[in-house]
Write a structure and sequence with these properties.
The complex is a heterodimer. By secondary structure, chain A is an alpha/beta fold. Chain A has ten helices and six strands, in the order αααβαβαβαβαβαβαα. The model of chain A has no long low-confidence stretch (mean pLDDT about 90). Chain B is built from nine helices and no strands. In chain B, helix 5 crosses helix 6 and helix 7 crosses helix 8. Chain B starts with a helix and ends with a helix. The relative contact order of chain B is 0.08. The chains are: A alpha/beta, B mainly alpha.
């Protein structure tokens, strides 16, 4: 028993850099050897709701896709953007891209160019990228009342009145669905507050893990229809879309989030073990101190 | 062959490893990357805000293409003379090519909107913060922004975060048992959580016990937030590692291993020299 206690005390005094190294290895090894860890991906009810909401849209419907993330949160959100676009394109839904973050422009451009080529979609007819406007929630209010007060040209500089799919679009009420790819402020919360709740437009979100607990009250209350929570949410959505595309006999490249989930799971196990060890060590040391 | 893609990959790898080097300790690589990040981000946001908002939506509304609005009046000629004088200043007194103020006005709108002079003036007031004697004028612009934001947010919060959320915390006794229990837990959690933050009464007796229950609910929330935060950070780490893995191939001239070895050697030398300096200063 004393030996075990000594081991735990030794573990407790580990240099933080060794812990960083072990966590780093727990991420790196599954990335280099993904075949070593094969874990099933089961969609949560929240991810399933997002999928069902989009799957129930009809051909020709209009979806507003808002990019509120940048390179710093790309690993979590970008796979969602790709999977959502694949799903929307497979169902021949018109996609309108907006960005509430300046670097959202890069993300939207990358996502559209990657998936549009694969699904042979035409700019201005099947999708449009209107880009970023500064103003945070004021931009959402502008989109809710009159898009043309803010957007005169798209991201490429084309006047929006010359874009065929913009002809019948005045404000948010002309959209059938809103999807927010959110990494913070302004993001999903602001879409609920300034556009989707007041105008009663269905909204779903794919957000970073850190935001999930803040967004959940809206999801529970159906103000947001389902949520894709971080990288696991992206992986779940990818698996759902892949199954749907197989049903539709459409071949598409597999998503990235699924491949990263092995690393995510192993790293979590390692961190949880460190937390347990840390707590045991703490209690042993405290007991020893009390005994004197 | 050295392409832009390969060069980009080398920059990405170098900056990523510079930031990771902080895990060892604070060092010049980390500091350089950090400063670069802040500078580039600020510069990018400033440029994009100007070209996507101020130029087309503010100047574009004040001085739209003259072909669209020309009525031949003297006032309009004076107005566009001001436009030309702005152009003269912005081109470095005629040295540079026209860019912000194109010839004959900015395309996009078909009427002059004088009301936009107000945000234009307030914007100038904001910049006057840099002039100590006139800095007080910036308060007007700030007051406008704060007032506008408060008004805008008040409705959003009141509707989506207060009224609808209060409605949602009500218990529907006609639904199934599972839903009722769930709603009951939610109701108790909300109520006791609010009691914990109610400081007008001393937390003793019933109030004390209820606020203690509130703490447990809050702890569960913080625990969930912490778990999700860890998950998010690990996802970002995976993203960076994935890029580093991709850039370690021969296609990118082995960017990752070469830069990694370079940074390790430099850090070792720096650490050694830093240690010597400390020893000298101690002596």
């Amino acid at each position: 028993m004393e030996t075990i206690k000594k081991i735990f005390i030794l573990l407790g005094s580990l240099d933080r850099r060794i812990i960083f190294f072990i966590v780093g290895l727990s991420v790196l090894i599954p990335l280099l050897k993904p075949e070593w860890v094969n874990l099933p991906i089961r969609p949560t009810p929240e991810s399933q709701i997002v999928f069902d909401e989009i799957n129930n849209l009809n051909e020709g419907d209009k979806v507003l896709l808002s990019f509120e993330y940048g390179p710093s949160t790309k690993p979590e959100i970008h796979p969602m953007a790709i999977a959502i676009l694949k799903h929307l394109y497979a169902k021949n839904i018109q996609v309108y891209g907006f960005a509430l973050w300046p670097d959202g422009n890069f993300m939207s451009t990358e996502a559209f160019s990657e998936v549009s080529v694969e699904f042979d979609k035409k700019y201005g007819i099947d999708y449009v990228n209107l880009g970023f406007k500064p103003g945070q929630e004021a931009v959402i209010t502008g989109i809710a009342s009159d898009i043309r007060t803010l957007y005169t040209v798209d991201l490429k500089g084309t006047p929006i009145n010359d874009i065929p799919m913009m002809k019948d679009v005045v404000n948010i009420e002309d959209f059938d669905f809103v999807f927010s790819l959110s990494a913070g402020f302004p993001g999903s919360k602001e879409w609920v507050q300034y556009a989707c709740d007041p105008k009663n437009i269905p909204l779903s979100t794919g957000c970073t893990s850190i935001q999930v607990t803040d967004i959940m009250p809206y999801v529970e209350n159906n103000q947001i229809r389902g949520i894709l929570a971080g990288m696991p949410g992206a992986a779940e959505y990818e698996s759902l879309v892949e199954t749907e595309l197989q049903k539709m006999k459409i071949t598409a490249t597999p998503g990235k989030a699924t491949g990263m989930m092995a690393a995510q799971s192993i790293a979590h196990v390692v961190i949880v073990l460190f937390i347990i060890f840390g707590n045991i060590t703490y209690f042993i040391t405290r007991k020893k101190k009390r005994k004197g | 062959m050295l392409t832009a893609e390969i060069m980009g990959a080398w920059v990405v790898v170098f900056l990523t490893l510079c930031i990771f080097s902080f895990l060892y300790k604070d060092n010049p690589f980390y500091k350089a990357a950090e400063h670069l990040y802040v500078g580039v981000s600020a510069g990018y946001v400033a440029v994009i805000s100007f070209w996507q908002q101020i130029q087309p939506n503010l100047f574009g509304r004040l001085w739209p293409s003259r072909v669209e609005v020309d009525d031949g009046s003297i006032l309009q000629s004076i107005w566009y003379t001001i436009y030309e004088s702005f152009n003269f200043i912005s081109t470095g007194f005629g040295v540079l090519d026209r860019s912000i103020f194109p010839e004959g006005g900015i395309k996009g709108y078909d009427e002059i909107r004088m009301i936009y002079l107000i945000p234009f003036i307030l914007g100038i007031f904001m910049l006057l913060r840099l002039v100590p004697k006139l800095g007080w004028l910036a308060r007007w612009a700030i007051a406008y922004i704060v007032g506008m934001a408060a008004g805008l947010r008040f409705y959003g919060f009141l509707n989506s975060d207060i009224l609808i959320q209060i409605k949602a915390s009500a218990i529907d006794f006609t639904s199934d048992w599972g839903t009722i229990i769930n709603a009951l837990i939610l109701f108790i959690g909300t109520l006791t959580g609010l009691i914990y933050f109610f400081y007008s009464t001393e937390h003793k007796g019933v109030i004390g016990r209820l606020s203690r229950i509130g703490i447990y609910f809050l702890m569960i929330k913080f625990g969930a937030s912490f778990g999700f935060a860890v998950m998010g950070r690990i996802s970002l780490l995976i993203g960076r590692f994935n890029d580093l893995k991709d850039y370690s191939s021969s296609e990118y001239n082995y960017a990752t291993p070469i830069i990694l070895v370079f940074i390790i050697i430099c850090l070792a030398i720096w650490s050694f020299m830093d240690g010597e300096k400390k020893n000298e200063s101690t002596v």
